[in-house]
Amino acid sequence: MSNPYVGTISGSIDLPINTAGNMNHMTYADAIYRLQKDIRLSSYSPKEFSGKLYGNGHMISGLSYDGTSGSVLDDGVGRCGLFTVTRGNAEIRDLVISGTVITLSNADERQIRVGIIVGNSYGNTKITNCSVYGGSITCGDATKYDQGSELVGGIVGLAEGNTVITGCYVDATLRAGGGAAYCGGIAGAAIENAKITGCTTWGDYKSTARCHGQNATNGLGYAGSIAGAKASSATISDNGGSPTLAVGTYESGKHSTATGRPYAIYVADYGDLSKKWNIKTTS
């Protein structure tokens, strides 16, 4: 009998997920994948996803990733999470994630989008009734002056397109540090028509931004209980929770001075992405 998880299919298919091995073959765009029991990932490579994953209240644990930039696509941006990218009509619901540990150095000083469930959500992605317990993301080096940027979220690093995140819960430790840093309990940032509603967060979220160089245009440090920042077109509403720490800071680096407000602070649910400070450089 052929392996239903390997090969090509036409039309939709419904597949059970019983092992970590099954998780490594979730490649069909039209498939519905249903978790049948709790799974511990001992060897798993984060990947793109455009199908439907129904967790049925089961838990995925043991995801650990330690690297430089995650999965770097043609646009030069690094992405990391249980799924690096979701596209099309991807849907993830009723899933519990426990104990994920993601560490990215960003030594290449590029942009990185990292979330515990999804690094970067596009299209009509829907994430519903998912919970994250424990675990951590550490992205970038908060002690270093660089030109990189990090978007770190408990659910999604960067939510864009028509992404809808509903009824999710996060209790984790999240750190973003670099030339520009965005850290949020649910999303590092929400842009375009993304919507985040009915979510609750606890935990510890912190961003630290340090910039340097003759053309230092970064120097943004945002942290929020729901999102590090949002565009005016995105929607964040009816959320709750009380993080133990949610703070964003900016520190001007070598050969640069800040004009305007010299730091960003935690502001209710999110930072205002429209407020971009001008960073003047000196020789």
Number of strands: 33
Shape: globular
Poorly predicted runs: 6-10, 212-218, 243-283
N-end to C-end Cα span: 69 Å
Number of helices: 1
Q: Beta fraction of the residues?
A: over 45%
Rg (C-alpha, Å)? 18 Å
By CATH, the architecture is named 3 Solenoid
**Kindly state the mean pLDDT as a whole number?**
78
CATH class category: Mainly Beta
Largest sheet: 10 strands, parallel
Give the helix proportion (percent range). Answer: under 10%
Structural class: mainly beta
Tally of structural domains: 1
What is CATH's topology name? Pectate Lyase C-like
Protein architecture, described:
The protein has 283 residues and is mainly β. The protein has one domain (54-281): Pectate Lyase C-like (3 Solenoid), CATH 2.160.20. The chain is built from 1 helix and 33 strands. The strands form 5 sheets. Strands 3, 6, 7, 12, 13, 17, 21, 25, 29 and 30 form a 10-stranded parallel β-sheet that branches. It has an 8-stranded parallel β-sheet with strand order 1-2-5-11-16-20-24-28. Strand 1, helix 1 (20-23) and strand 2 form a beta-alpha-beta unit. The chain is globular and about 45 Å long. The termini are far apart.
